[in-house]
Automatic annotation (TrEMBL):
CDD domains: UdpNAET
Primary location recorded for the protein, binned into one broad class: cytoplasm
GO cellular component: cytoplasm
Residue span, Enolpyruvate transferase domain: 3-295
Enzyme Commission number(s) from the entry: 2.5.1.7
A GO BP entry: cell wall organization
Pathway, per record: Cell wall biogenesis; peptidoglycan biosynthesis
Superkingdom field: Bacteria
Protein's UniProt keywords contain Cell cycle: yes
Protein name: UDP-N-acetylglucosamine 1-carboxyvinyltransferase
Localisation per UniProt entry: Cytoplasm
Gene Ontology molecular-function annotations: UDP-N-acetylglucosamine 1-carboxyvinyltransferase activity
Length: 331
């Protein structure tokens, strides 16, 4: 496997994945940006008891999947509790795996000889849902969203209500967002699930630029995930960043400007801010946006936004982090 690409929002280490696989009997070597993992002498991984220093989503998923076909029992302690972990476990179980406890901090997996194919529908994307909720909130619009799982959005819905945005649960898989009279400042700290999701931090920063009063946003999951602040300031926001905290002083309006998306959710935040800004905003950074959203521009257009893609989705192959292929330099 190549080392992870993804958004440049911090170190993106894989030590927990590697240590877990080693505890299960794998040899792991990392060279030239490639992670080679294998079981010495062939054969299968062995079940192990693994404690994660931090509840990493990716490491929990890697180790849970590896354990489905290992010999014996694996226990993952301090596992990530994100809904996607539980959904992945349900998917693996539908293929014949024996996983218990996914969605809690202790997951037990009993290895099985093999998995079989299955038809499976994955859960709705809670971050995409949250992005549309903020789109409605920032433009003071009414939006009906379905299918959604409101239980996966508890911290996001709670924060929106605290900010003054009315949200009604209309049935088990439907949310209606109504225009807010006023937006109020708040405090946000990103945390592993069920805390406030780091992926919603940038869109909420865009929203809070237009709230009355001073908000504080503390990003505690990734160490470099506030780069959208300076781009939001180009649109007239008043944000100061110190360390991992952003101090957002609400302004009465934003004004359109050219902006650059530095990562996936930063890009979404800038598009949302552009919808609310007076005048024309030109956004660059579509390769980030298109990596995480299925044609966000078209869905916003259907909701009545004035948005136009001026550059079509590029055809050349993309690298693992979604950018265009790099120049190759060899010695
Ligand atoms: C806990 C959390 O909010 N996870 C988010 C994280 O998942 P993703 O799986 O990308 O990241 P992790 O959950 O693994 O990372 C959480 C924290 O653990 C650290 N870490 C991770 C792996 C490792 O081997 N060693 C290590 O120290 C990371 O540096 C980070 O500070 O980004 C995704 C995309 O934005 C989000 O959908 C996930 O909700
Ligand atoms: C950072 C994100 O994705 P990735 O882990 O792929 O970089 C994200 O989904 O917000």
């Amino acid at each position: 496997m190549p080392l992870p690409g993804g958004c440049a929002i911090g170190a993106r280490p894989v030590d927990l994945h590697v240590r877990g696989l080693q505890a299960m009997g794998a040899e792991v070597q990392i060279e030239h940006g490639i992670c080679n993992a294998y079981v010495p002498g062939g054969g299968r991984l062995k079940g192990a008891k693994i404690y994660l220093d931090t509840p990493s989503v990716g490491a929990t998923e890697t180790l849970m999947m590896a354990a489905t076909l290992a010999d014996g029992e694996t226990i993952i302690e301090n596992a990530a509790r994100e809904p996607e972990v539980a959904d992945l476990a349900n998917f693996c179980n539908a293929m014949g795996a024996k996983i218990h406890g996914a969605g809690t901090s202790i997951i037990t997996i009993v290895g099985v000889p093999q998995l079989h194919s299955v038809d499976y529908s994955i859960i709705p994307d809670r971050i995409e849902t949250g992005t549309f909720l903020v789109a409605g909130a920032i433009t003071r619009s009414e939006i009906l969203l379905s299918p959604v799982v409101p239980d996966h959005l508890i911290p996001v819905i709670a924060k929106l209500r605290e900010i003054g945005v009315p949200i009604i649960e209309e049935g088990p898989d439907c949310l209606r967002l109504l225009p807010a009279e006023t937006l109020k400042a708040t405090y946000i700290e990103t945390l592993p699930h069920p805390g406030f999701p780091t992926d919603m931090q940038a869109p909420f920063m865009a929203l809070l630029t237009l709230a009355e009063g001073d908000s504080i946003i503390n990003e505690s999951v990734f160490e470099n995930r506030l780069r959208h602040a300076s781009e939001l300031n180009r649109l007239g926001a008043d944000i100061r960043v110190k360390g991992n905290a952003a101090f957002v002083r609400g302004v009465p309006m934003l004004s359109g400007a050219p902006v650059l998306g530095t990562d996936l959710r930063a890009s979404a935040a800038l598009v949302l801010a552009g919808l609310a800004a007076e005048g024309l905003t030109t956004f660059q950074g579509l390769h980030h946006l298109d990596r995480g959203y299925d044609r966000l521009d078209l869905k916003l257009l259907q909701l009545g936004a004035k948005i136009k893609r001026v550059q079509e989705i590029p055809t050349p192959e993309l690298t693992s982090n979604g950018s265009n292929p790099p120049v190759t330099i060899s010695t």
